[in-house]
């Protein structure tokens, strides 16, 4: 799809790019360490199919934690709210995304929300299918339908790199298994989860997915009803309360839109009823969110009064 480069957006990107020097590319997943910290790109997708962009929007990146909100939507459709929320909670943690701390201090070992790694692992566990290949195929088909792009795939290199280094996620999974939240082989769950996190796309695809959330689960361009409105609402609420981890409160105050970040440096934004945003800037702040991506969203929100509050 064609997405027009926009001068105003370019000006904001150039301004936001100044803070990349204060960030750092994630390298705990070794393959992510290769990204260029100075990159910053953005696409905004409108319901009338218009799209504006700035930066190198052909560049692909892996979804990482952005995939958590999509897998949540998928599992809620597959299993229903009652079942899903028996296994994962609805409350923000105020802790980093990979923290194990709250699992042990809660009465039941149920992860507090689906956006932290423990909760996301419980969600991925709930993806239906007879084996990992089928479960992954079902998830990626859903993502392709959200982005209206059948070519979306995953990075084998990033998936493998995370699979080989995901000891903390293995620890979280074994903890969840011990407490009956999950009941599958942890290596199989790691295989599925690391492939899910390695699903790869560009800003334009991400903005289109953000648009579907923004428009209550319907793709306004092709008219497809992809997610029931109620589930889209739940996902957007999680994006506001937990989408930026322990920076979610500050993000809500300064920017005020539902958004989800990933350690690859992507951020998906969904401005309710208005448009979807896809940002990529791999230099991260100390809480694992794209440092220039957040600055850019702040500039955008201030300039165009995007806060929903
Ligand atoms: O599980 C992990 O650690 C990564 N695959 C995803 C973490 C992530 O993206 C956190 N986001 N800021």
Automatic annotation (TrEMBL):
Keywords: Acetylation, Hydrolase
E.C. code: 3.5.1.2
Catalyzed chemical reaction(s): L-glutamine + H2O = L-glutamate + NH4(+)
Keyword Glycosyltransferase assigned: no
Subunit structure: Homotetramer.
UniProt similarity note: Belongs to the glutaminase family.
NCBIfam families: Gln_ase
Record's protein name: Glutaminase
Natural source organism: Niallia oryzisoli
């Amino acid at each position: 799809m064609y997405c027009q480069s926009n001068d105003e957006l370019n000006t904001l990107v150039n301004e936001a790019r100044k803070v990349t020097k204060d960030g750092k590319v994630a390298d705990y997943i070794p393959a992510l360490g290769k990204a260029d910290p100075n990159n910053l790109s953005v696409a905004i997708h409108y319901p009338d199919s218009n799209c504006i962009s700035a930066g190198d929007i052909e560049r692909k990146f892996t979804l990482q934690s952005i995939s958590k909100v999509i897998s949540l939507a998928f599992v809620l459709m597959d299993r229903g709210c009652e079942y899903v929320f028996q296994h994962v909670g609805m409350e923000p943690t105020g802790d980093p995304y990979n923290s194990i701390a709250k699992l042990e201090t809660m009465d039941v070992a149920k992860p507090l929300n689906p956006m932290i790694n423990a909760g996301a692992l419980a969600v991925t566990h709930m993806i239906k299918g007879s084996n990992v290949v089928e479960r992954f195929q079902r998830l990626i088909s859903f993502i392709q339908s959200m982005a209206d792009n059948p070519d979306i795939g995953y990075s084998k290199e990033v998936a493998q790199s995370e699979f080989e280094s995901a000891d903390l996620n293995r620890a979280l999974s074994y903890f969840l298994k011990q407490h009956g939240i999950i009941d599958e082989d942890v290596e199989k769950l790691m295989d599925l989860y690391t492939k899910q996190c390695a699903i790869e796309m560009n800003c334009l695809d991400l903005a289109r997915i953000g648009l579907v959330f923004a428009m209550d689960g319907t793709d306004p361009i092709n008219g497809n009803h992809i997610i029931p409105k109620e589930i889209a609402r739940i996902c957007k609420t999680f994006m506001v309360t937990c989408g930026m981890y322990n920076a979610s409160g500050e993000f809500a105050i300064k920017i005020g839109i539902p958004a989800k970040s990933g350690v690859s440096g992507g951020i998906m934004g969904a401005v309710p009823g208005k448009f979807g945003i896809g940002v990529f800037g791999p230099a991260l702040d100390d809480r694992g969110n794209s440092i220039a991506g957040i600055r850019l969203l702040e500039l955008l929100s201030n300039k165009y009064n995007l806060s929903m509050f």
